[in-house]
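Look over this one:
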Amino acid sequence: QVQLVESGGGLVQSGGSLRLSCATSGFHLDYYAIGWLRQVPGKEPEGVSCISASTTSTYYADSVKGRFTVSRDNAKKTVYLQMNSLEPEDTAVYYCSTKTRGYSDVCDPEEISPADFGSWGQGTQVTVSP
């Protein structure tokens, strides 16, 4: 029943931009903080961003701060990740997910931990060429 579908990935050159979308269904999106996570094959998943259910608080990994912007439209049941000034190090599969550990409606201000999130989507590939 819980569905999260990522889209918007692609191949871009260094310095380019992409906007990822996370379309959700099967749950009350307005009750949940949503995280964006990414994973490179052979490595542990990495937290990228988190947005609170109210949209008043957003958090970013240091590696993307100032370049990425997370937003949400609860009426459309969609969460977005605007990615600017992309770098080859951003290459990964990107996932959106609901926060399930601790307070489900707010992000952990200290870290964006993949362990705090469940119900990941299928992911969308982002590839940034040098």
